[in-house]
């Protein structure tokens, strides 16, 4: 993996920008042409967002450009159907097995159920289940839209032009609805069902919205921005399970092995991916591959998963609370070698040195949390010492971000020192050159760290205010 030469003023955003720029090269793929209105979008649009479990959202590129949610709506409607009807009733009508077929295949299993809720047949049946609870299409859609908004953390709206375009051109989906009715599986009126289904696909979202929706699923149903519960944890578990095996259509197997995140794509160019317990990702780029998935979106998610260790089967011992403790350096019982003049100046100044003890296997999610904590508390210190003595492993991107944090602190008039007794930051071997970039901030004893921190205070005192 090649890291950016400089991680810039915002380390996470700079890294995401690097991924965005790397994946923006080339014009592979094609716009969805079976919905006429989707052929009018800018093929070069490309946005990337990430929502962490505490609610902060990082946005890159065309992250605030609205586009229609399309099939990324399917897990949400399925979740609402499970909430209203219960697991048993829904399972009698919709399967949970991967189909291995295209998303719009007219396909059912041996029990004449759609094979899963992530293909069109299953999603149409999910919509029909909502109409069984509320037969009025307008009221059913209003409830569905409110639920989508609760997951996104803001009020969403309908793209009327795309909806009308789908209503005019949706013969295949109508055929699926009438087929399901003929099997006795779909009990709501087929035309009303298709109307509701096309409306749900035509809801306008941004990659920020998709990231927050993913973050809501990652948080077990609690929106990371609003703190409000949008859906039950048992429903989230089922939805994420089906997204893992079926969310990327007939490309699901390659996705699970190479990316390893529960995800759902849409022909509008969106992808929503979830790392349970940690974060949600939203990507938008409308050029699609042969499976109907965003070419750049898939590429970006692969890079993020590989670089940041996001694969759900990537086992680490990382604690959710990466900062074990923090305290002022005046609590340290360490004497440094100082002249009488320096000692007089430093007397009572150690409360401007803050020690942060980190722990666990430090991966991207944990490192991002540490950086935001440093930014939030920056007014309370002049020098930060990051104590790595309880960190066992650190991935390459987190290592670069950690070293970059010291450089960023210096750029803002503060300083950072990394106490690395076991050389987890500056390692020997394949990535040594990357790790040593900025290694002047890294020391191997706490005495050295405190001395370096005090040196910084002395230097700051010499600078004109």
Write a short abstract of this structure.
The chain is α+β, with helices and mostly antiparallel strands and 465 residues long. Helices cover 43% and strands 15% of the residues.
Describe the overall structure.
This protein is an alpha+beta fold and 465 residues long. It folds into two domains: 11-308, 3-Layer(aba) Sandwich (Beta-lactamase); 323-455, Transcription Regulator spoIIAA (2-Layer Sandwich). The chain has helices at 11-23, 74-85, 87-91, 120-133, 137-152, 160-169, 171-182, 190-201, 207-218, 233-246, 252-258, 295-308, 340-346, 364-376, 396-411, 432-436, 446-462, and strands at residues 47-52, 57-61, 67-68, 157-158, 203-205, 263-265, 270-275, 279-284, 323-328, 353-362, 383-394, 415-419, 442-443. The strands form three sheets. Strands 2-1-8-7-6 form a five-stranded antiparallel β-sheet. Strand 7 and strand 8 (279-284) form a beta hairpin. The chain starts with 10 loop residues before the first helix and ends with a helix. Residues 1-9 and 428-436 have low confidence and may be disordered.
Give keywords:
2 domains; disordered N terminus; 465 residues; Beta-lactamase; Transcription Regulator spoIIAA; single chain; five-stranded antiparallel β-sheet; alpha+beta; elongated
- Note the run of SSEs as H and E: HEEEHHHHEHHHEHHHEEEHEHEHEHEHEH
Name of the CATH architecture of the largest domain: 3-Layer(aba) Sandwich
The helix-and-strand class reads alpha+beta
In helices, the fraction of residues equals 40-55%
Q: Name the shape in a single word.
A: elongated
Give the termini separation: 42 Å
So, the CATH homologous superfamily of the largest domain? DD-peptidase/beta-lactamase superfamily
Task: Describe the strand arrangement of the main beta sheet, using strand numbers.
Answer: 2-1-8-7-6
**CATH topology term of the largest domain:** Beta-lactamase
Range of strand content? 5-15%
Q: How many domain regions?
A: 2
What is the radius of gyration?
A: 26 Å
Number of strands: 13
